[in-house]
Specification:
Elements: H1 2-12, H2 41-50, H3 57-70, H4 85-99, H5 108-121, H6 131-143
Helix pairs in contact: 1-4, 2-3, 4-5, 5-6
């Protein structure tokens, strides 16, 4: 599970803009939340100290992205204020991949429906609502088969 998390976080291309996190530090915690490699403890301490601070919404979200990269996927979508729509969508899609769904109901298809409803259908990903695009995403969700990771 940790290897999948690390793979997806690296593949997403998301990087923290507030702290440099080497790839070796990604998802460097076990199932109980304990550090695997103590060499990166200072990064985890720095992120932990800053992730809930509210100097500004963007500051909070950037530290949230850092916390997500380090192993807390809920921080990818915590404040939903990323400054750029592309970054918001990237965080949301990575959250769906890592957790298997949205907040209310687990399941990758439910997560994709949330994406279609929240970002496409109500116009958050652009100026206009796009019900056709939302329908295409929902139709795509119906065809997705789980891979070896679920």
């Amino acid at each position: 599970k940790r290897e999948r998390y690390k793979y997806l976080a690296i593949r997403s291309g998301l990087r923290s803009v507030v702290i440099d996190i080497p790839y070796d530090a990604y998802a460097n915690v076990d199932e109980k939340g304990n550090l695997i490699n103590e060499e990166y403890a200072y990064i985890y301490d720095e992120v932990s100290n800053n992730k809930e601070t509210l100097k500004s919404s963007l500051f909070r979200q950037e530290w949230g992205i850092a916390a997500g990269i380090l192993g807390k996927p809920e921080y990818f979508v915590r404040s939903k204020n990323h400054g750029f729509n592309a970054r918001m969508i990237q965080c949301f899609i990575l959250y769906i991949q890592l957790t298997g769904g949205g907040y209310e109901e687990l399941g990758i298809k439910r997560g994709i429906y949330n994406y279609a409803d929240n970002l496409l259908e109500i116009g958050m990903a652009g100026i206009h609502k796009n019900p056709l695009r939302a329908k295409l995403v929902k139709d795509l969700a119906k065809t997705i088969q789980p891979d070896e990771f679920g």
